[in-house]
Amino acid sequence: MFNEDLLTQCKKSQFKRQNIEIALLPNIINEIEEYEVEEIQNHRKKGCSMQFLIHWKRNGNEHNQWIVETGLLYAKEAIQDY
Predict the structure, then answer these.
(1) Among 48, 81, 54, CA closest to 66
(2) CB within 10 Å: which end of the chain, N or C, has fewer?
């Protein structure tokens, strides 16, 4: 429950970077969400593991993510291409 008197109208974005596109929905395969890797853009060592900067297919750079190598079981080809 909210007190309507305390609500204020949302302000428009002041800067371009505040207008981030919404990520596209994943493919659903066997009731599991699957995103497709378009390319690997970078890598880094974090502790004992390797992380890769993933650019997801059909999404902008603002949705890129650092993913641990063990989380990329189905992206072996993308890792080899990198």
Answers:
(1) 54
(2) N
